[in-house]
## 1
Amino acid sequence: MSMEAGFELGFASLSNEVTDRSLAVEGTLPDWLDGALVRNGPATFEVGGERVAHWFDGLAMLHRFGFDGRDDAVRYTNRSLRSETYRRAMETGEIAGQFATGGGYLQRVRQLLFGEPTDNCNVHVARVDGRLVAITEVPRYVGVNPETLDALGEFAFADALT
């Protein structure tokens, strides 16, 4: 993948994970602020010697900011989403079956038509029926522990849209 000047930082991998790290707070938080903000996005852009061909193909990482307004405290945790796609990439040293990465044009078309959709849920997190779920554009979702950010396995809806 060629990089235009200035865009390299958007493709820099983040592999370091931290747990419950205290962050500096400037000013004061409202006393009523008590909860967490969880977000995700691509964070690993190369595995082995291979780089992803598109930003959408970066392996997912979750970020959690925990807020406690009574103590003026913010704590941060991040975790790579340990999906099947992540585990396979770490075992084989290659990223395959993604939007624009892995194989040539015909192999990607075959993957789109006949392959299993990726569970690299690097687009959004949502609360579904009381559970935190990492999602992407394809119909495979991963349940997530909202405190530790550990993957809980594939999430399946109990019903279907018709």
## 2
Amino acid sequence: MQRLIKLLLPLFILNSCHQTVEKDTKLIQEGNIIHEEIRELEFVEIRQLGNSYNQRFDLSGICFGPENSIWAVADKSHNTAIYQLDWAKDETTWEIISQIDLEISDSRIDFEALDYADSIFYISNEVDQSFFTYNLQSKKLEKVTPPYLEADIHPNNWKMNTGLEGLAIDSKNNIAYLGKEREPRMIYTFDRSKNKIIEAYDFPHTHSNDIGDLKYENNFLYVLERNGNYITKIDLETQTVVDKLSYRSVCSAPEGKLFDAKYGMAEALLLSENEIWIGLDNNADSVTDFAKEKYKLKGNKPAIIRFKRPLGF
């Protein structure tokens, strides 16, 4: 009998493991996604900032503005502006073609995210966990500090560089989604009409522990998981992961990375109908030999990667 048990036990364990894997692969909609099930984004091209801006530019947020113009922010204290970008004709770079100076006197500035809706830009400031609004029509700049303490949230206890890394606007419902980067990673739902944080949660069963950026579309929140090289789609009604895409094959391929950094560098997410753009904040690090050879990158300028957006994502 004991011999029979010994013979059958490995088969039982193998069968149990097999059933677990099958269960996980069927639970993608609940967030239990194993690595093999995650689709890779289809690469289109990668470009770096050209010679239009001579200071250090650590790209940290990107969005569409009026008439599908493209705008960005950077996270150094001298970058107190919103910058308009353009795809250069040389087919290798993008350039800064104009900027809106926000005339902020406070030197404690760390812009980490950018969004736009109804003639208003929204810019997160990680230094004090606030965000700014800039109205293009009135030229009025306002600072918004959510009432964290009323929701028993204590930003003063957060470690440096673990604060608001993502900001996404649902203008129809006057909601701002605020993404706390890590330690712990959190999403805060801020109802602007009530001036109240109405939800605070993390989303489980993911392969990363951080947030690089957020974007909102049609009651879905798209999360840039920087350290995992993923874009995760969250159903806001159920607060569960319903889909996930990877850009690992470009940024962290087995044969080499674009920049030689310990952590992920993706900090800016842009969604259009047919494309997904990811902006890299390379912290002025130089590109790797792999990036030079495969993608013809050079120097230490930030990069934007274009991917095709799968139907239904």
## 3
Amino acid sequence: MVAAYWQQPLLQADVANWLGTRDEIGTPAGRVRRLTQRGLDVVYRTGSVLELEAWLARRTPCILFVRTGELPYWHVDTPHALVLIGIEGDSAYVLDPATEAAPTQVRLDDLILAWSYSDYTYAVLTVSGG
């Protein structure tokens, strides 16, 4: 989703292969750093809502690593990744690869709680040299 935003569309199967994704367990969050080998700069760290808002102000989406059990539209509790594309007041707007709704609006408090399970870890992808 983020690569397509930067006009660097990647096939899901290719990304899964590069990141070593396994169907039964998914992808460990830190493996997102492997995308530096594919022409993307990767920021991977813990942060705050203020940091996310700063990225969003620069029109840069953020990947948040969450537990879905804290998100009202999920019925399963599992580690997951969402793309944060906006914050407005007490609402957040995310792209969730597991849903068809785009974007999905969630309460910011719910998103922060879901994000807390990863110690507020996030990733930002940008095009190298861009």
## 4
Amino acid sequence: GVITGQGLLILEKVQPAGKRPMAAQDFARGRPELIGAILQDGA
């Protein structure tokens, strides 16, 4: 899940730019640097 300022968001699927949707677990396995990372809005 993703902790937000409003609570917890459970991701079931993600779709990286230019790629097909995939299970969130599969995405996380391929991007271990994101586990525990603090993400910010790119705006």
